UniProtKB/TrEMBL annotation:
InterPro entries membership: IstA-like_C
Domain Transposase for insertion sequence element IS21-like C-terminal stretches: 144-210
Source organism, top-level taxon: Bacteria
Protein name: Mobile element protein
């Protein structure tokens, strides 16, 4: 017999009780017949009850079959019911005057009493519970898996408009396409996994400590959010270096002479300007800007680029309207044209 006290009957403790019992017995039965309680069973049915996901995974890990007893049918597991009654009389009653300030302390008392019960000889048959188990029952158990079952729990959540789900007052991102969808969440001690229609769509290390923390992955963001996140001083410096030395110098000036938020706004405008011109045009214009101004700005730069653009258009128009040259396109008339060779 195995007995352990828990503070509640929530899923985590329900699973932990099974794991501790399996470890105590050193094996697993082929079939488990638990009570038909909500912690382990989603829906009780006459033919086959529907187990919750965490309980089903525990059964799969230990290679056992879970067959919950029928509702209000204690005769489905009379031996277990008898053991519960015996434990109540022998253990709970014996500890009624004990003072415990922690669950660990309470269980220490229980385990001491449990060992006494299991090793005490029967009154009407030879041996003890422990001896009968070791000689007759233990050999029928299946071996424990090489790895212990990793504690986990399943929850459901709705993806918020900011493409995050809330789990125990912490926030985890999922791909933004799943906004407003209901998802299933698998929680282990150190991992959060998110599933949509049985397909895993996200995973995060579990956040611990101060509540309200966010775990956000860049590839879960929509494009405009990702662009905003990537718009930082380091990436702007890299972009400027790729454009040319004058652009690099101008970007460094902007970052050095403005607070970061304002500098990033100025650099965002600069990159918008850059999209309308070639790299060579931008670099030449910034070179001019730095030569003529001690306080260079995007406004002056834009004026330089626009004037250059206008100048090029004027030159192109002039080239198109220039008169044709007589040397290359005219006609040379000989004397015979004017009748001088007439007789």
């Amino acid at each position: 017999m195995y007995v352990e006290a828990f503070l509640d009957m929530k899923s985590a403790n329900w699973l932990k009780a099974h794991i501790h019992a399996f470890d105590y017995f050193g094996g697993v039965t082929e079939t488990l017949v638990p009570d038909n309680l909500k912690t382990g069973v989603i829906k009780a049915q006459r033919e086959e009850s529907i187990l919750n996901e965490a309980y089903r995974e525990l059964a799969d890990h230990y290679r056992t079959v879970i067959v919950p007893s029928r509702v209000r049918k204690p005769k489905d597991k009379p031996t277990a019911e008898g053991s519960v009654g015996y434990a109540s009389r022998q253990i709970i009653a014996a500890l009624r005057n004990a003072q415990c300030f922690h669950i660990t302390e309470l269980n220490q008392y229980i385990f001491e009493k449990l060992e006494e019960i299991n090793t005490t000889d029967f009154q009407k048959r030879p041996g003890s519970r422990k001896k009968v188990f070791e000689e007759e029952e233990k050999s029928t158990l299946q071996q424990l898996p090489q790895t212990r079952f990793k504690m986990m729990e399943w929850k459901t959540a709705k993806v918020q408009l900011n493409y995050h789900i809330q789990v125990e007052r912490m926030y985890y991102s999922v791909p933004y396409e799943y906004v407003r969808e209901s998802v299933d969440i698998r929680l282990t001690t150190d991992l959060i996994e998110v599933y949509f229609k049985e397909a895993r769509i996200a995973s995060h290390k579990r956040l611990k400590g101060e509540i309200g923390q966010f775990s956000t992955k860049v590839d879960h963001m929509p494009d405009h959010h990702r662009s905003y996140l990537e718009h930082n001083p380091e990436n702007n410096v890299k972009w400027a270096a790729a454009m040319g030395p004058s652009t690099e110098k101008y970007v460094a000036y902007i970052l050095e002479n403005n607070v970061e938020k304002k500098a990033l706004n100025i650099l965002s405008t600069l990159q918008n300007i850059a999209r309308k011109f070639t790299t060579e045009e931008l670099e030449q214009a910034i070179t001019t800007l730095l030569e003529i101004s001690t306080t260079p700005s995007n406004t002056v730069l834009k004026g330089i680029l626009e004037r250059k653009k206008k100048s090029l258009k004027t030159q192109e128009s002039a080239a198109k309207t220039q008169p044709a040259s007589t040397e290359s396109h005219g006609f040379t008339r000989g004397a015979s044209y004017f009748g001088r060779d007439k007789k």
